[in-house]
Amino acid sequence: MPKLGMEPIRRAALVKATIDEIGATGTLDITVSKIAKRAGMSSALAHHYFGGKEQIFLAAMRHTLTVYGAEVRGALAMADGPKLRLEAIIRAGFTSSNFRREVIAAWLNFYVLAQSNPQAQRLLTIYQRRLHSNLVFNLRPLVGGHADAVAERIAGLIDGLYLRRGLDPRGEAGVDATAHVLALLHAELRAAS
Amino acid sequence: MPKLGMEPIRRAALVKATIDEIGATGTLDITVSKIAKRAGMSSALAHHYFGGKEQIFLAAMRHTLTVYGAEVRGALAMADGPKLRLEAIIRAGFTSSNFRREVIAAWLNFYVLAQSNPQAQRLLTIYQRRLHSNLVFNLRPLVGGHADAVAERIAGLIDGLYLRRGLDPRGEAGVDATAHVLALLHAELRAAS
DNA sequence: TTTTTTCTTGATTGACGAGTCAATAAAGAA
DNA sequence: TTCTTTATTGACTCGTCAATCAAGAAAAAA
Questions:
Q1: Do the Cβ atoms of B26 and A180 come within 8 Å?
Q2: Contact (CB<8Å) B180/A149
Q3: Check whether domain B6-192 has CATH 1.10.357.10, yes or no
Q4: Are the C-beta atoms of residues A54 and A117 closer than 8 Å to each other?
Q5: Cα dihedral value A83, A89, A93, A98, nearest 10
Q6: Ramachandran region, residue B17 (left: φ > 0; alpha: ψ -120 to 50; beta: rest)
Q7: A32-36: which pairs have CB atoms within 8 A and are 24 or more residues apart?
Q8: Confidence class of residue A1 from pLDDT cuts 50, 70 and 90?
Q9: What average pLDDT does range B64-71 have in this prediction?
Q10: Which UniProt keywords apply (chains A, B) (predicted)?
Q11: Cβ–Cβ under 8 Å, residues A135 and A188
């Protein structure tokens, strides 16, 4: 059975299993064995490919971030002009895929991890910077010198509403959150003109 | 040494120690022994008074929430009229005491806990409802029927900026966050008039 | 075929932690 | 004083888990 080129397959399976396991428990308090079993292999193999629990978490975090980044980029590619692009960025944050239990759990736990793990901290900073600069770039032609402050508010509202909706026990989430952020955007545009 | 009426003293010491320990590690992944040692007693005593780790966490959460609630109430007592009250609520969220490492860590971890623990979930819901209704009550005379939606945006921006500032590696936090939320508030008031 | 490389796991180690319990000590009640 | 209630802990149980390792199995190379 042992074939060549298993490494990338195993790593991907472990990353997915990790996110699923985080989603199932809500915590980072999960065992390598459980992850490995979910991914269909022994825990020894997980250690073999990743070296340790922390590495697995970071890989899962990178993956979550990558997926989100890809969604944003995809939405941007289809939007023309700064206003439509801003709306696309906002919408991308509240896709139903972002409200799957595992994804919410992943984000919340990564926030926690970022407090104590410098690598996690860096990854989160990257996400925040990218969001911020995407917003500023498209706000500049519309609100000029206020771009930075407006971007800060929009980013804050995105994160805050995501947090609130993600934690809301009754699911039913993203639609009105999108509307709220769009309302903020339009108010800012109106105020600046 | 054993005197009577130790229970409330011990409980308070344990709650404080728990929050400090969460702040020191960033995680809920802490041991009852460490908490107890920090509070100057044996772990057995901690179990005696709280029954288990989870109970200790919930007590710590209740305490955090109570302190925050008291701050808001204090700020409200000194504010006259809906507009000043709204500003007081907003300011209360970004006090420097709310940006102490332990407090941030506590909130982040309580978010995580709320995913899997119904009691934590309930406590968080209480906080959210109280904030929301405080906002709505004071917004109603100013923006009428829009109060609900505006409150949602303000609450979202408060939580989101708190999250971002709390996670920001360079401290230096609350001042501009307050300004951002106040800016949103004033924009909403202007738009409604 | 023999050898080497890649893949894989069961078993083990070593450590740690939650919760229990029996026993001690002090204070107040009877 | 004797009894009861409250406070307190050290020692122990039982379980779990991260990480290691030696060894097996299969493909590819020689």
A1: no
A2: yes
A3: yes
A4: yes
A5: 130
A6: alpha
A7: A32/A56
A8: very low
A9: 97
A10: DNA-binding, Repressor, Transcription, Transcription regulation
A11: no
- Residue A170: the pLDDT is 82
- Residue B173 above 90 pLDDT? no
CB A174 within 8 A of CB A95: yes
C-alpha A174/C-alpha A190 separation (Å) is 24
Task: Select from A57, A129, A167 the residue whose CB has the most chain B CBs within 10 Å, as the one to mutate to test that interface.
Answer: A167
Query: What are the distances in angstroms from CA B137 to CA A1, A115, B156, B190?
Result: 67, 35, 17, 18
HSE-CB for B116 with a 13 A CA cutoff = 17
Mean pLDDT for the stretch of residues B65-86: 97
Nearest residue: Cα versus C1' of C25: B2
The domain ranges of chain B are: 6-192
pLDDT tens profile A139-189: 999 999 999 999 999 999 999 999 999 999 887 677 799 999 999 999 999
**Distance between CA atoms of residues B192 and B149, nearest Å:** 12
CA distance A63 to chain B (A): 20
Nearest to A41 by CA among A62, A17, A22: A17
- Could you please state the CATH topology (level 3) that the domain comprising A58-192 is classified under: Tetracycline Repressor; domain 2 (1.10.357)
Structure tokens at A51: 């070296």
ipTM of the complex: 0.94
Kindly list the distances between the CA atom of residue B27 and the CA atoms of A18, A31, A108, B41, B108, in Å, as whole numbers in the listed order. Answer: 18, 16, 12, 22, 9
A149-A174-A179 Cα angle (round to 5): 50
